Amino acid sequence: MKKVVIITGASQGIGAAVVQAYRALDYRVVATSRSIQPSSDPDILTVAGDIADPATAQRVVREALATFGRIDSLINNAGIFIAKPFTAYTQEDYANVLAVNLNGFFYITQLAIAEMEKHGAGHVVNVTTSLVDHAIDGVPSVLASLTKGGLNSATKSLAIEYAKRGIRVNAVSPGIIKTPMHGEETHATLGQLHPVGHMGEVSDIAQAIVYLENAGFVTGEILHVDGGQSAGH
């Protein structure tokens, strides 16, 4: 029976690349995002909805089980980043970042792990950011650090809690990746924020997630894919 992965934030950028990477591994994919369109691939089930809403998480898991019968992996890729000076954040900004980055992780991960426990195996990957470890002057990132830093810590905590139950939990911590979020005119400037001198590609993150998927002895790992950002400047 083919394995099944749920991928959040799956309609573009990193998420879309991760969908293709798991199809290449012959997984069935449950892909969710607010704007996701139906797929012509019978092994890709799309579920549109706001991952911050617990009802979306319930629907994704329910439809995954109804269509494919199991859940083997969960990739928590959905996230938002609002770059503003700290004192310029509005209550709405704060609520939105917490809703997507933390609530979006909590509800679906809780449901997915409950299913993984039933067959004593599973894998969760959280996509975070290297800004958590290495803040950069001129890139205001308090809300990213508050939420994604929480996910890094939760990754280790869950890894230990479920280590003896066959469920692994890891994180991929990207640098700045070429996605539709960043216009091409910004690429040169953003590239210079990395010691290697250029931005990352979505394929870099997808490959890191595939590595973790296949790395049965790796759990609780925060894998930095960031052109050296977290190592220093």
How would you summarize the topology of this molecule?
Elements: E1 4-8, H1 13-24, E2 28-33, E3 44-48, H2 54-68, E4 73-76, H3 91-118, E5 122-127, H4 142-161, E6 167-174, H5 187-191, H6 202-214, E7 222-225
Helix pairs in contact: 1-6, 2-3, 3-4
Concise account of the structure shown:
This protein is an alpha/beta fold and 233 residues long. The protein is built from six helices and seven strands; from the N terminus they run βαββαβαβαβααβ. Belongs to the short-chain dehydrogenases/reductases (SDR) family.
Structural class: alpha/beta
The sequence of SSEs as H and E is EHEEHEHEHEHHE
In the CATH hierarchy, the architecture is 3-Layer(aba) Sandwich
Given as residue ranges, the uncertain stretches (5+ residues, pLDDT < 50) are none
Taking all Cα atoms into account, the compactness measure Rg is 17 Å
Specify the CATH homologous superfamily. NAD(P)-binding Rossmann-like Domain
Helical amount: 25-40%
Q: How many DSSP E strands?
A: 7
Keywords: Oxidoreductase
InterPro entries: NAD(P)-bd_dom_sf (IPR036291), SDR_fam (IPR002347)
Protein name: SDR family NAD(P)-dependent oxidoreductase
Family: Belongs to the short-chain dehydrogenases/reductases (SDR) family.
